[in-house]
Amino acid sequence: MAKPTLSALRAKNTKDQYEALGRFVEAFEAMVDKARSVSVDLLSRSAAHENLVTIALHHPVMTATPLFEIMRAMIMEILKEDRHPLHNDRQLYAAVLRQISTEYMDLVSTRNNLLHGTWFVGHVSLAGIGVDEAKEFFIRKHKPTKDGLDQLDLPKKPEELLKLVERCQKTGTWIVVLYTFLADHRDIRQAFYKENGTSYVLDPEFG
């Protein structure tokens, strides 16, 4: 079998890089939509009312961060009611939401840096140092700091983008499971538990 030419390798690597970026964007938006859907469900009182709520939460100003913050605030406000069956678990919900928020906001920051950077894909001089087949891509994204201008450390390989995909999927699952337990008035401890007494993990049965 003939060895692939450098041109063919470069074309394949470039295709893989664009595909991985597309998968990340898809997974990210799916994660954000889960936060939006929770808020729609919490606010809706009828099918017609749901359409009105959906209009508001699909406005362009409703980006990833406010959508999550609205969802979290509503959940915590609901649990503030003394009469709510899960009122005594309010701090537990707050702790799990805090952990979800940390991961969610880090993904938001990474997504913004990726999509607002200048991409160089398939450019040998920039994508891969001394690698003719352009195994890596390069994203030029600077950040002003107290020491001057810094180049952000961002993914350079498809595998790194696909790891972000997995993180988005996991975070979206956590949002859905947490809300399902809230809506059904179930004990959230059945799904989330502390590992090594520090951070929470989701029972494999739920995702």
On the 0 to 100 scale, the average pLDDT is: 91
The count of β-strands is 6
- Quickly count the helices: 6
Overall number of domains: 1
Spans of at least 5 consecutive residues with low confidence = 125-130
Taken in chain order, the helices and strands follow as HHHHEHEEEHEE
- What is the share of helical residues? 55-70%
Q: Give the termini separation.
A: 43 Å
Largest sheet, strands/sense/barrel: 2 strands, antiparallel
Rounded to an integer in angstroms, the radius of gyration calculated over CA atoms is 21 Å
Structural class: mainly alpha
Strand-residue proportion: 5-15%
| Dominant shape | elongated
Enumerate the strands of the largest sheet in spatial order, edge to edge or round the barrel: 1-2
Could you walk me through the main structural features you see in this protein, from its secondary elements to its overall organization?
This protein has helices spanning 6-43, 47-57, 64-80, 90-115, 124-127, 158-183, and strands at 118-120, 138-140, 142-145, 148-151, 192-195, 199-202. By secondary structure, it is mainly alpha-helical. The strands form three sheets. A two-stranded antiparallel sheet has the order 1-2. Helix 1 (6-43) packs across helix 2 and helix 1 (6-43) runs parallel beside helix 3. The longest helix is centred in the first third of the chain and has 38 residues, at 6-43. The relative contact order is 0.14. Mean pLDDT is 91; it is low at 125-130.
